[in-house]
């Protein structure tokens, strides 16, 4: 059932209404996500050392000088963690946003142009059959190890998931009488897109969060396999470095080397998941 | 019969596309040693790459000829030689695939029924909170590699409950007494992790479907007539959510396949996942390509099987 | 003769799977004519309307506008052809974006017409023509209007492109009796004032409304009877037509007749 607003709400009023409809756990998660974003923007400013600075002694345990100790090369782990906020969240937003955009645009195009749409749908079906993580790994190995390639690889292989959901929703929306009216009057792509968008923007928002969530998983897994730019220390890279340390399993270094980055990843993923978690109808992909 | 032919045709086309992707992707990626777009890298790598690489890929030959050679290789079952292990890729994969299928198969055999049972049961209860959807959603979101790493660190090394790595203790052979017990012991933790990552997705789906079914008239009627819950579960709800469930399971099995590879990488389990770790660590292109091909074909087979099941199920109704 | 015909449907056939929605239906509409299309659910009336508008592509046959054949799909028709035939939906609440204001709903039609440089009635004029009282709702969200009011807005919207044909597909089914009568009176007035041809699809006929020119009866996808409206009660031969007449007389017995 359509919720009929009594007047067009401003952005601020819409946000307030959205906030008041949230449950407590979701509000907590929104705050956490906001904190993550703020850390991504401003965190590295507070880093006591440069992320590339390896002048300290190696493998120092946590102290006031090095809040999380140092790694084998002498980098300050805390600074690297702060840098990781910007990098990991940046990748997440870029890759998640990119794949959502591509998937949505392709879904709309295939609904509006049914013949081309058939081809795209078959392609998407095929790509959904392939285990995307493996294909992304494959691509990432062959390509030059840059961050851009990582992001592109993730976008290129995760759009089919967005496509499938968006296509179904857009098709249903285009069958509605109000959109049929626009088509019958010779409305162009933009007219139809505007009408569909007004109805479906919550869906697209959810898809965006879902994809950002997935992108973090992909990036972490890629980094785990040692793929990606070795100089850009995302959380995944940090975790990989921790695992590379030869005594990793046998002493307590993991507590300050592995755990912080791990908790950052898990915290981010968990908050995003809970944020889009719908108690009445749990979304499955 | 026509539908059978269309079905086979569809999957043959998919197979052809997979082969094409496997061929063209490395050649289109920037920075790839086989890149046809980036002339400089190619000439750089030409000098550096080994004899085996040259012999298999022949990067200096024109593209159509490379493609024909590739197809020829595939038909002969030649997936090239691993650049690191210096053994035929097909042989390496052949030895490993058994372990992977064992792990994946067992985890699905355990995870799917558990997930369905849990989801339906929770869906039929009045209390929504008992489903613990939040915990499941979070569990579903955590990357498998992290979960496996932490489990290995804590349970294998720090607490020493489970064996640390591999499928069996070094030195044991299949004939020896206690071999299978050893295998089970080594499989326990990987299996546990795999199952833990599968259950949330299936349970959530079953839960959603059950909630939807609950509102249907005929289920309400059954409740009104006081038919026991167990019967409702089995006779009313399960058969009706089956079509959608099969579609979901198809995707789930493929995700499970990828998950198996990652868990094996972490635990050094001698399945394809371990090969994957070797390939990525050493940039072993032939091995990587072989793994991709095999995994994609497996995905295709799984999808095909489920497609058939869905059709069979639809015809029965 | 065909030059006089505004709209001509020739052997339209459409099948949905095994169901024949339309079977070789041929129908004509003269300029300014009022045609009533009657039939039970599933008899093909809505499919006919959609085929005429180009929303549904027929399997066979074609639609001609002033002697020129129209493309089967609305996506391929010229704007002038699309504007000439306007469709009014059964459910006004689904035909409109309820969150938009009445002004925005109408402005959409004006905007599209202007883009194609097609002469359009200004939005306020169109609404005024339909019902001046509705001008008060100009800035209100469409969802706050009643069914009858919203349907009138839809009629106004349909008038903006200056159409030659108006197709009202069960436009009164969702309205109450008073609202339905009011809407039919409105459509009749528009027909007179603007000379628009009207094709109204209905479930039940109100024989007291005498401004219809012809009546066409549909059953099972076939056009079974087509007669001038005034002579329908006298000359209707098809069993379904007779049933319609009987049920009308049952509910509204004429003077001097006893009901069955």
Q: How would you describe this protein?
A:
The complex is a heterotrimer of chains A (285), B (317) and C (260). Chain A has 11 helices and no strands. With 285 residues, chain A is mainly alpha-helical. Chain A has one domain: MetI-like (MetI-like fold, Orthogonal Bundle). The radius of gyration of chain A is 22 Å and the shape is elongated. The two termini of chain A are 23 Å apart. The N terminus of chain A is likely disordered. Chain B is built from 12 helices and no strands. The model of chain B has no long low-confidence stretch (mean pLDDT 81). Chain B has 317 residues and is mostly helical. The two termini of chain B are 19 Å apart. The C terminus of chain C is likely disordered. Chain C has 260 residues and is an alpha/beta fold. The longest helix of chain C is centred in the last third of the chain and has 18 residues. Chains in contact: A-B, A-C. At the A-B interface, helix 4, helix 5, helix 8 and helix 11 of A face helix 1, helix 6, helix 7, helix 8 and helix 10 of B.
């Amino acid at each position: 059932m359509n919720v009929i607003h009594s007047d067009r709400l401003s952005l601020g009023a819409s946000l307030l209404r959205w906030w008041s409809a949230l449950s407590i756990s979701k509000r907590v998660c929104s705050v956490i996500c906001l904190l993550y974003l703020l850390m991504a923007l401003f965190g590295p400013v507070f880093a006591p050392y440069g992320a590339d600075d390896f002048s300290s002694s190696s493998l120092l345990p946590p102290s006031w000088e090095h809040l999380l100790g140092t790694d084998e090369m002498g980098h300050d782990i805390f600074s690297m963690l702060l840098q990781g906020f910007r990098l990991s969240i940046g990748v997440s937003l870029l890759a998640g946003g990119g794949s959502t955009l591509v998937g949505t645009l392709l879904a709309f195009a295939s609904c509006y142009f049914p013949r081309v749409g058939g081809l795209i749908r078959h392609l998407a079906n095929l790509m959904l059959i392939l285990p995307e993580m493996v294909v992304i790994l494959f691509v990432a190995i062959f390509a030059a190890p840059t961050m851009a390639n990582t992001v592109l690889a993730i976008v290129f292989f995760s759009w089919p998931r967005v496509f499938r959901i968006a296509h179904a929703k857009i098709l249903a929306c285009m069958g509605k009488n109000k959109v049929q009216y626009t088509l019958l009057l010779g409305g162009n792509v933009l007219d139809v897109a505007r009408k569909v968008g007004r109805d479906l923007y919550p869906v697209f928002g959810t898809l965006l969060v879902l994809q950002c969530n997935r992108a973090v998983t992909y990036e972490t897994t890629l980094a785990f396999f040692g793929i990606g730019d070795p100089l850009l220390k995302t959380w995944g890279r940090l975790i990989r470095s921790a695992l590379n340390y030869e005594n990793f399993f046998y002493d307590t270094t993991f507590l300050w080397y592995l755990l912080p980055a791990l908790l950052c990843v898990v915290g981010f993923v968990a908050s995003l998941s809970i944020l889009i978690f719908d108690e009445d109808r749990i979304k499955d992909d | 019969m026509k539908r059978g032919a269309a079905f086979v045709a569809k999957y043959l086309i998919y197979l052809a596309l997979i082969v094409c992707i496997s061929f063209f992707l490395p050649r289109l990626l920037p920075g790839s040693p086989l890149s046809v777009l980036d002339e400089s890298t190619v000439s750089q790598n030409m000098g550096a790459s080994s004899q085996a690489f040259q012999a298999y890929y022949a990067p200096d030959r024109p593209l159509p000829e490379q493609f024909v050679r590739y197809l020829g290789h595939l038909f002969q079952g030649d997936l090239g030689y691993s650049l690191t292990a210096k053994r035929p890729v097909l042989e390496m994969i052949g030895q490993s695939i058994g372990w992977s299928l064992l792990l994946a198969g067992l985890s699905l055999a355990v995870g799917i029924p558990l997930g369905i049972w849990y989801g339906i049961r929770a869906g039929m209860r009045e209390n929504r909170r008992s489903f613990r959807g939040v915990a499941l959603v979070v569990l579903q979101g955590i990357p498998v590699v992290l979960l496996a790493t932490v489990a290995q660190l804590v349970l294998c090394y720090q607490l020493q409950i489970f064996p640390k790595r591999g499928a069996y203790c070094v030195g044991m052979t299949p004939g020896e007494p206690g071999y299978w017990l050893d295998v089970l012991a080594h499989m326990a933790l990987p299996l546990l992790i795999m199952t833990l990552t599968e259950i949330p997705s299936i349970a959530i789906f079953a839960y959603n479907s059950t909630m939807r079914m609950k509102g249907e008239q005929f289920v309400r009627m059954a409740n009104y007539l006081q038919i026991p819950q167990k019967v409702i579960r089995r006779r009313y709800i399960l058969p009706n959510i089956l079509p959608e469930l099969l579609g979901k399971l198809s995707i789930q099995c493929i995700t499970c396949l990828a998950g198996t590879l990652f868990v094996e990488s972490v635990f050094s389990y001698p399945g394809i996942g371990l090969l994957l770790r070797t390939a990525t660590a050493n940039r072993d292109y032939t091995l990587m390509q072989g793994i991709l091909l095999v995994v994609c074909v497996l995905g295709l087979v799984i999808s095909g099987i489920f497609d058939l099941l869905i059709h069979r199920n639809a015809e029965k109704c | 003769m065909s030059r006089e015909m505004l709209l001509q449907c020739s052997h339209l056939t459409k099948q949905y799977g095994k169901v024949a929605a339309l079977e070789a239906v041929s129908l004509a509409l003269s300029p300014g004519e009022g045609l009533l299309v009657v039939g039970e659910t599933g008899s093909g009336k809505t499919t006919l309307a959609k085929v005429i508008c180009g929303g549904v592509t027929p399997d066979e046959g074609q639609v001609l506008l002033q002697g020129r054949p129209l493309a089967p799909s609305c996506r391929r028709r010229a704007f002038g052809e699309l504007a000439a035939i306007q469709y009014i939906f059964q459910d006004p609440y689904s035909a409109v974006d309820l969150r938009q204001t009445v002004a925005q709903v109408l402005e959409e039609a004006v905007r599209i017409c202007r883009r194609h440089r097609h002469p359009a009635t200004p939005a306020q004029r169109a609404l005024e023509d339909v019902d001046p009282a509705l001008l008060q709702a100009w800035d209100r969200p469409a969802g706050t209007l009643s069914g009858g009011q919203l349907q009138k807005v839809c009629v106004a919207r349909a008038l903006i492109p200056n159409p030659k044909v108006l197709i009202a597909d069960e436009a009164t089914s969702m309205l109450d009796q008073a609202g339905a009568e009011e809407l039919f009176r409105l459509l009749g007035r528009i027909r007179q004032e603007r000379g628009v041809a009207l094709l109204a699809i209905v479930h039940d006929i109100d024989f007291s409304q005498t401004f219809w020119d012809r009546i066409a009866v549909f059953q099972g996808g076939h056009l079974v009877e087509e007669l001038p409206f005034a002579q329908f009660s006298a000359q209707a031969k098809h069993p379904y037509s007779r049933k319609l007449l009987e049920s009308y007389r049952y509910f509204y017995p004429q003077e001097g007749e006893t009901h069955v």
